Amino acid sequence: MGDGVRGMSSSVKLLVAAMLVGGMLAAVPAGATATQSDTTLEVVVVDQDGDGIGGATIDATWDGGSRTVTTASNGRAFVDVPEGDDVELNVTAEEYVRNHPLVVTDATSEEVTVDMAPKGRSTIVVQDTNGEPVEDVSVELQQEFRIDVAGETDVTGQFSTGTIEQGEYELTAVKPGFFEETRTITIGEETREEVELERGQVQLEVTAVDDHFAEPRSLEAQVIVSDAGGQLAELTATGGRASLDVDVNNRYTVAVERDGYQRNERTVEVDESPRSVQIATQRVPELTLEPRNERVVVGENTTVRVVNAYDEPVAGAEVTRDNETVGETDGNGELAVPIESTGSQGLQAVQGNLRSDVVAVEGVEPAEGSTLTPTSTSETVGDAPGFGALVALVALAATALLARRR
Question: CA 76, CA 72: separation in Å to the nearest integer?
């Protein structure tokens, strides 16, 4: 009996323990995962000779965090970062600089070397061929196809690079209206570089066409050329062509206008070579309804024709009579519209967002005692083809008969 009780007691203890463990597991939030582990980067900061730089500050940043450490006298420092993250290392030192941060991808426990260069600075002075300062010149300095410094000259024609690495750079200076200047320069601790820009123009030729047709047709139109400063010229494209001289290295807006046509424009980049551009446009979309008759006998039909802005038939256009749909035009753009009452009746064509002008057709009663006849003009018997010739022939035969009897 005692053994049975002790056995039952042990079972109860195991059951309670299992329930407690289950409760603790259930208390863990769904989707919870283990904390991401860190890894240690050994960062070595060196100068152009490969010697360690002591006292350099390393700012390590990653998505959601950062850490700052300082190098020892041998240029080494250890920084803990999340394992597998991409880490950006920005290093600053008293006498050295780096133009771009170093990025460590998929960080693991590894040694990373950061190369630094002596600090330098340069002032770029830009003048035209007359020795006058040129402001708003875009200046770029790059090494190994990577832009390190970019900015614009001030009113005195100068641009300061700020603190950058000493060494060789490719300098590019350009401004609309001037030819681009590119050269290799060497920047030291404090240097000055003078650049001369030459003004220049090239020809811009504009062709205006109507591309409604399978083969676009030249279009005589007005060509308007503008840049950031406003409109520069308005020309007539005689025979569809117009040309003018424009500043090099500039961006232009070229528009084509003509009455009855949609205004169309393009942005055109002009470098240092002549440029040709084609601008296409089409007539302003419209519908025109043309009735065959303006007066129609009640009970008869009048055929209407619907055409587009190019006088081409429009199939499938809805035709209404006093705002009530009558039918749709056929492949020839035509529809027979019955006139069922006297008085003025408004006919209109509709297709999509286009509506023609309303055209008035008057329904009239047939003349008293007459029968209904087609609305188109009919010829009388006397006007029938060949009737006059028949009368003349009978008269001639009668004259001949009388002459024979005499």
Answer: 5
